[in-house]
Design goal:
Strand content of chain A: 5-15%
Order of helices and strands of chain B: EHEHEEHEHHEHEEHHEEEH
Helix content of chain A: 40-55%
Number of helices of chain A: 26
Strand content of chain B: 15-25%
Number of domains of chain B: 1
Radius of gyration of chain B: 20 Å
CATH topology of chain B: Rossmann fold
Largest sheet of chain B: 7 strands, mixed
Largest sheet of chain A: 10 strands, mixed
CATH architecture of chain B: 3-Layer(aba) Sandwich
Shape of chain B: globular
Structural class of chain B: alpha/beta
Oligomer: heterodimer
Number of strands of chain A: 12
Helix content of chain B: 25-40%
Radius of gyration of chain A: 40 Å
Strand order of the largest sheet of chain B: 2-3-4-1-5-6-9
Chain lengths: ~650, ~325
Amino acid sequence: MTSRTVPVIAQWALEGKQPDGEDYRILACSTGDLSRRHFEDALGRFQLGELNTLPQVSVSYARLATRPGSGYVALAIHWYATEDQRHADGVSQRDNQGRPTAYTSYFCLPYQRLADAAVGYLAMHEALRSVTLNVADGPPKEVPIAMPRSRIPAAEDLAVRVAPLLLTGRPVCVLGAEGTSMLERLEFIDTIMELLPYGFRARMTAATWTRASNRNHRFRLFFSAAPRADEPDYVVTWGERPELVSVPDREAGEYFDWLQDNIGQLARLADLTSELGFSPKCTLQALESVLGVRHRLQFRPRPVSHVPADGPGGPPPQGDIGEETLVYCAEHAELANLTRLRSDITFLKKFAEGEIGEDGRARYRDTIARLGLLRPGFLGDDKYEERLYGALLRMAFATPLSYEAYCRIEDCAGVAPGDTPHRELLVAIAKAGIAEPAVSAIVYWHLRKTDERKVSKWLVSGQVDAVQLIGLLAGEWTYPQHARIVCDLTLEYLKRAPGHYQPQQVRLALSQHGFLARALQMRHPDQDQYQVHALYRFLTAAYPQAAATPGQDLSRAAILQILNGTGAPPTPALLSAVLMLLDRPAAWQLAWNAYIQGSLTLANFDEPTLARLRARLPHIDAAAINGPRTRPRMGSARSGGTP
Amino acid sequence: MAYRADWSESGVAMLGPTESGKTTFLCALKKALLEHDEEWVLFTRDAASQRQLDEMSSALISEGGFPMPTRTVDTIRWILGGTVERRERKGRFGGEIKTKDQVEITLRLTDAPGGLGSADRVGLSERTELIKQLADSSAVLYMFDPIREFTHGDAFERTDSLLSELMGVVSQEPGYEGKLPHRLAVCVTKLDDPRVFRTAHDLGMLVPDDSSRWGFPRVHETDAQALFHALGEISRSGNGEAVPRLLERYFYPERISYYVTSAVGFMVNKHTRRFDPRDTENVYRTASGAPLVRGPVHPINVVEPILWIIRQLAPVT
């Protein structure tokens, strides 16, 4: 029941034709802040076009440039004067050519006054339609407008979809509503506006009908018989299945999700039509009906922790909304409620943009792991998975991702170290931003399995730094499996992108880290063959001319540098790799000698032991080291130096 | 025969005071094309234009009612499909041969309230929109209503107001050479009105139209300009005679063509099925003053200005 009214001062204008006139004019207007010229301009901006069927209603707005903040909501009633329908006195039905004259009763009501009482268009129309204007200027009119009965908006499928469309900024054209009354259409417009913040009414423009060829009108929401050509309007059809109205992503999509979650739940009460009494049994039944559609996943008991309750891994603070949303995510995924899931993901994205402490992240990782949110095929929808992973990574692992974070992702996703995570997760990791080259190397190595081109592109993108990767390989790794991947990727890079690095720099980097021989030996002690393979390829990249030129060995200096010049004892695998690059027996001998020297002199022996050994080491001719670098080959016209 | 779907798109703006017959002219176009010797057809490709075409055609032809006064700057796209002939040289020394092309011409028609010509509308958004549409158009169909000029005499004032504002916009465009570049088809309307008919008759400008099944007379294009001048002289305000000069001042005279038209055509005697010079008017008014079409609509010179514009704007082949 509407019992209360709010008095509102309405400035007004009456547009039409004088009995002897032929052009449309402002016949009369109020003598308030808005002048005749204001009314002329406003009415010119919001014309429907000539229509056979009147009355129609349009809503728009007006502002006084000289008074910022003094906005008006305008409501225009477009009507033909007939015997029984007359919104103004002293007007004639036809012009001097005998053609029917359409009149417009135009009212401007102060926005703030309406906003305070949340007055809708229907109520405005109801109050203003009974105002009879005169063909003479006069004071503004005080109009009592009924205040709304309820502020809970009625949900209607089409309205729930059209309201977000308006947020895109593109007009919405409603077709197929010829069979509806003007009041029904106005109610629809009002319903849509109830689904948007009231403030939008300050700039809203809408019409219950417009002429299709009136292409330049400025209504954001309008009914018509045909879509406007060449205008980017959304076109929806009255009476068609609302699901056919596609709401775009981004803000409009998010708003649509929000509406569905908040308005839709209440709207669905009307669908629960089984007869119910008010007995305890029926109450329970009703509760089940309402709640049953969304059974809640329960937190499992947390394992007993050795750390204090307020430390990482402790129980979540009461009402941790991030953790709750993670649970909802799992729940909605299980129920295949994609709408709510999308809403959850949107929330998580926003949530992750805020500041999250390491304690919180630890808890979220724990929850993600427990709920299996990163497991493959969890959502079964690539689009949602990518969005969800993006949000989870940011929320629980901090982006851009460090190597430590990557290890945690593997852990949470239930992926063994070094194993390949599923593609959607990999893509999300790549998109989330990577802070360390080791993570890039691992991710792109895995992506190679499904997207070879992407990896090829990355290898030659200039983002890969061989020297940096060699440095990483020389360091310590949480998981040797990751180091193996990085090593393989480095070798792949050295092989496939020779134009993107300088061999001298690679040589220097390898030399600084003992040609990685010890690192490989320690990391892969049982994989001798892999060590030899890797070292041979590193040497090939570092000494490309010797490797690529038949009959051209490593120089003597290079042999000594590799096997006895790095500060760390060589390994059998390194000797093997060097020997594989040598053709001449004399070079082999030098390599043997250098290996023995390096193994004994660079080992961590005490000085007396070293002193005793020195005399027993094979002799290396220092002069020969700087001697001729190449040996002549029969039939070969080429000559040159090894590096 | 070659088919050239996208031969041309021409913006054609309708100009003329209130009730000069701009919208009625459009309403009659489809029927006029059907009655014309050349086989042009009118169709659309967008729903809004199709709806307008249907409504306009049926309003005048089937329902005998005149269109409602235009309230907004309406834009419709109607497509004319037909055949054009062109000459083509064969070989280096060969003679010319005639070839026919099946073509489509899109007419972007702008119809606006006649009241926007009034000087007190300057600055209003609707008027600004009309000026913009005019500036974007290649041609103008100017409706000169001699009856209205006799009773109101405001053609000069309104036309001058619009054209001077249009000139202000066009003169800022590159290539401006001192006049409006549009093609201008001047249509002296309402030939079926006895007052106009009599003037043409008295000036000896009526000639039999050999192609008319009903024996309609017509004013030949060569006399149309003279009739325009003559009718301007009986303007209520006395300014009507200046309208032709005004148009020639703003537009290049060689780009102006004149027609004497009637969208509804002459009344055909129901018994003789022939034109009766004593009863020409094909419009009558009800007791309330509303105009209605009396008999069948046989438009006069409605197609011709449109085809003249099309040929003027056709790409050179």
